[in-house]
Design goal:
alpha+beta; OB fold (Dihydrolipoamide Acetyltransferase, E2P); BirA Bifunctional Protein, domain 2; Gyrase A, domain 2; 3 domains; eight-stranded mixed beta sheet; 16 helices; 28% helix; 23% strand; binds aspartic acid
Length: 598
């Protein structure tokens, strides 16, 4: 028989215990750490499963000593040796293999490692582009290994749950017709048809609906979606969704399926118990109480409507805004040990509010016996009791107001203040707070383009009571739409869909697609709807975002094996990159390079 290429492992680096004492083993892995006490070497050998301490004793052969001397961090090696118990003083209860070590008899260097560009496990200390350029090294770090395992466990658990409930996993194409869904499409030029392009799907939306027309009843897919927009911490040009659709369902069927799914998955994967039902908030209530449609419910700090009391005050700015149909809202920051509600503290909150349109942040400090001081306190003379009881304020608290003509801006500005207070006052509880946001507006007005557009996408069903007023009052139409929110992030959106050609066309028209354009773009969906489509609905939770939250991270880059950086570039393979002239010619493309900015 030919000589073996290398000694192949008989076990992994995470498996050996004192039960294996005296066994001969072969381990394969990487040199994690190498401590050298003269002729005594301690090598921490690492693979995906764990770390095992390998010892080269001082009585080892000269040959073994010399190989051990050559070892450097991240060399890939094979170790043949015997398991032995560590002396009591060396037992490491923190390590799964902490009771044993492997006495090396032979070490083979399988491959060498160039000097490391950064220390593994240094994680966040290392510049992100460096981590991404050498992603293969970064992936060896414990953090990346742990997070990608969690991601695998999460997806596997989802698959098992859904397959157990009669869902089929069906793939849909990645080269499709450009069918705008809200973001910009990525496109792929066709070589065979000059001037024609495929688009990469922003989501499998239309295909999953057509699968319902095709009678599949319950579908899911771990789907890759592509959107040509600016990448940010929690956005990528390509990302992964659990895409799901069901026939003959109403909203609550979809919501309870999701509650069951995540209840099961969080228990199985993280041993976390979620409530059987998640809290539900209407879009309007969510904005009024938390200032936004993705509230972080790990802390309370509700916002209150102050129009009535503002009118009774002597503060002209507030009164004028209310008189003009505007809004005055407030929240009460609780007195907190170690935090002084100083000018600087308030100015920073004000800066956060201004980003969302607030012109200022008015404030009042609550003193002993409800004495109001500072800021706009003097304008509330005589209204102390009412103000304090409305906000349930206590001595030492700080009341913060925003007044604005525009409801959304008023809410959003206070939402920014609420978020900042959550962090600054350390109010955020540990754990997972899910909630549903329901009753969203169906349309939003696009100021720049001067027309209505779908708030979610154009395939969502209006709530029935608005069917007669779609065209006459689009702004007040509520949709059968729902978002799932987790710890202040939107983690899923979905809706009950339109399955009627005429209604679908009305929505297209309101969104500025005349019948001809709609037919040209979405004709295949409209056609399908002419052949007995079932009522249907679905949802699409974002896998990256959920795993990010489950891992207590703030960037989805940390839970994706090969993400692009925030500039949309992959420093490892250098994409995007230029094509050579032949490729351009084959694709019938001429590049019109932008002129450099003067
Ligand atoms: N396709 C939608 C999205 O990606 C989700 C859905 O409505 O199911 O946001």
């Amino acid at each position: 028989m030919a000589e073996e290429l290398f000694s192949q492992r008989t076990t992994t680096c995470g498996a050996l215990t004192k039960e294996d004492n005296n066994k001969q083993v072969v381990l394969n892995g990487w040199v994690h750490r190498d401590r050298n006490h003269g002729s005594l070497h301690f090598i921490n050998l690492r693979d995906r499963y764990g770390i095992t301490q390998v010892v080269v004793d001082d009585d080892a052969s000269a040959e073994l000593q010399s190989v051990a001397n050559e070892l450097r961090m991240e060399f890939c090696i094979a170790v043949t040796g015997f398991v032995r118990l560590r002396p009591d003083s060396m037992v490491n209860p923190e390590m799964a293999t902490g009771e044993i070590e492997v006495k090396a008899e032979k070490i083979e260097i399988l491959s060498r490692c160039a000097p490391l560009p950064f220390l593994l496990d240094d994680g966040k200390e290392t510049r992100e582009d460096l981590r991404l350029k050498y992603r293969y090294l970064d992936l060896r770090s414990q953090g990346m290994q742990k997070r990608l395992k969690l991601r695998h466990d999460f997806i596997f658990s989802i698959r098992k749950y859904l397959a157990g409930r009669d869902f089929y996993e069906i793939e849909t194409p990645t080269l499709i017709k450009s069918t705008p869904e809200g973001a910009r499409d990525f496109v792929v030029p066709s070589r065979l048809y000059a001037g024609k392009f495929y688009a990469l799907p922003q989501s499998p939306q239309l295909f999953k609906q057509i699968l319902m027309v095709g009678g599949f009843d319950k579908y899911f897919q771990i789907a890759r979606c592509y959107r040509d927009e600016d990448s940010r911490g929690d956005r990528q040009l390509e990302f992964t969704q659990l895409d799901l659709e069901m026939s003959f369902v109403k909203r609550d069927d979809v919501l309870s399926l999701m509650e069951g799914l995540f209840g099961h998955v969080f228990k199985e994967v993280m041993n976390v118990d979620l409530p059987v039902h998640f809290r539900r908030l209407s879009y309007n209530d969510s904005l009024n109480t938390y200032g936004c449609d993705k509230p972080d419910l790990r802390f309370d700090l509700p916002i209150s409507d102050m129009n009535e009391i503002a009118q009774k005050s002597s503060f002209a700015t507030f009164k004028d805004i209310v008189a003009a149909g505007g809004f005055v809202k407030a929240l009460c920051a609780p007195k907190t040990e170690g935090v002084e509600f100083s000018r600087k503290f308030i100015t920073e909150l004000e800066d956060a509010a201004k980003i969302y349109g607030a012109k200022g942040l008015a404030w009042i400090k609550v003193g002993e016996h409800n004495v109001l001081s500072g800021g706009v306190g003097k304008f509330f003379a005589g209204l102390e009791e009412e103000l304090v009881s409305k906000l349930e304020a206590k001595e030492g608290d700080l009341i913060l107001f925003v007044a604005h003509e525009n409801w959304k801006r008023c809410c959003a500005s206070l939402s920014a203040v609420r978020s900042k207070l959550g962090k600054d006052l350390n109010l955020i509880r540990k754990g997972f707070e899910f909630c549903w946001i329901i009753d969203f507006p169906l349309f939003e007005y696009n100021e720049t383009e001067g027309h209505w557009e779908a708030a979610h996408h154009m395939f969502s069903m209006p709530q029935t009571e608005y069917l007669d007023t779609l065209e006459s009052d689009p702004g007040s139409v509520k949709g059968d739409l729902y978002d799932l929110v987790l710890n202040g992030y939107e983690v899923a959106s979905g809706s009950i869909r339109i399955h009627d050609v005429e209604l679908q066309k009305r929505i297209f028209r309101i969104c500025n697609f005349d019948d001809e354009t709609a037919e040209e773009r979405f004709g295949f969906l409209l056609n399908a709807f002419r052949y007995g489509p079932p009522p249907h609905g679905g949802i699409a939770p974002g896998i990256d975002r959920m795993v990010m939250i489950m891992s207590d991270e703030t960037s989805i880059h940390e839970v994706i094996a090969f993400p692009k950086n925030t500039a949309g570039v992959s420093p490892m393979d250098d994409s995007p990159s230029f094509l050579d002239q032949q490729q351009l010619d084959d694709l019938h493309l001429i590049i019109d390079y932008p002129k450099p900015k003067e």
